[in-house]
Amino acid sequence: MELQHAPDPWSRTPVTSPSERPIRLVIPTQLRTGLGCDVVSTSREHGERILDCLPRVGCVFADDSTDDERWWWIVPAGSHIGVSWPPSDTYTVGTHRADPAWTRARRGPRSVGPRLIHSPAGDSPYTPPIPLYFLACRLAGSVPKWSLLAGS
Fold first, then answer.
1. For residue range 74-83, what is the model confidence (pLDDT) as tens digits?
2. Residue 122 contacts by C-beta under 8 Å, 6 or more apart in sequence?
3. Where are the domains of the chain?
4. Torsion angles phi and psi, residue 137, rounded to 5
5. What is the tens place of the pLDDT at every residue in 34-55?
6. Among the four 14, 15, 20, 42, which has the fewest Cβ within 10 Å?
């Protein structure tokens, strides 16, 4: 399922669209994604610390196929509006939601790519974006910045 999301004029964060950097994630089918899916990418080191600190975490994916292992956190669409995510993180709008593996024909060996490393206890794939944002800023050594006029 490909989600379409128009860039927001009030966004303070540079965003990557899926066409520029396609990321296909297999979100478990029993999880509800009615709020759309955007993704925040952090380093593995920051990801481990965030995972230890947050009281509730949604789906987290990791890709260790490169030297720069990244962790991807599913957040509701629009979680970049009015905030400036740290430069060490990447915010991707409208992430592609891949079909579950059992619905696709398998071709050769298992493909290399993001794998689910944390599944939530409930029925939501989302990590709460505000606590994630504050932790990401703290770990990056940047001051959280947001605009109160973003939705006006």
1. 999 999 999 9
2. none
3. 15-101+112-140
4. -60, -45
5. 898 999 999 999 999 999 999 9
6. 20
